[in-house]
Design a protein that fits this description.
Layout lengths: L4 E7 L2 E8 L1 E6 L2 E5 L6 E4 L5 E5 L5 E13 L3 E11 L5 H10 L5 H15 L2
Parallel strand pairs: 1-8
Antiparallel strand pairs: 1-2, 3-4, 3-6, 5-7, 6-7, 7-8
Helix pairs in contact: 1-2
Length: 124
């Protein structure tokens, strides 16, 4: 069984996840990172259009569309501080696919839709 670590995922308006995890995956401006317990300290900017996927101790996953913000890893825990975020289970995938098609690539609407689609697909 993989060693677990503490994870908090927050946005300005709510706590999206708090609990233990065995793995965390996130897109940062420097590329995708995977985090296991005892990871070296790290501070990174979340990539526009990315998502965060938390793997729980029972191997289930929590996916979060995160628009902007930071990932902070210390010896004690991992914190995802998102400017705005949404749980995958709250996403209307058809509306997001339509938004992706109707927005110009690279625009805020396009990146938000891409983020939400990534989160939805991570747990589908």
């Amino acid at each position: 069984m993989a060693k677990s670590f503490r994870v908090d995922v927050v946005s300005p308006d709510k706590m999206l996840y708090t609990g233990d995890a065995t793995f965390l995956r996130a897109q940062t401006t420097d590329g995708e990172v995977g985090i296991l317990a005892d990871h070296a300290p790290l501070f990174a900017e979340l990539a526009p259009g990315g998502c965060v996927v938390v793997t729980l101790e029972d191997d289930s996953k929590v996916a979060i569309a995160a628009q902007g913000g930071f990932l902070s890893i210390t010896e004690a825990n991992v914190k995802v501080l998102a400017e705005s975020a949404q749980l995958a289970e709250e996403i209307d995938i058809e509306a997001e696919r339509a938004a992706l098609e109707s927005n110009e690539e690279g625009s805020a609407g396009y990146l938000q839709a891409r983020s939400r689609i990534r989160a939805f697909e991570a747990v589908s």
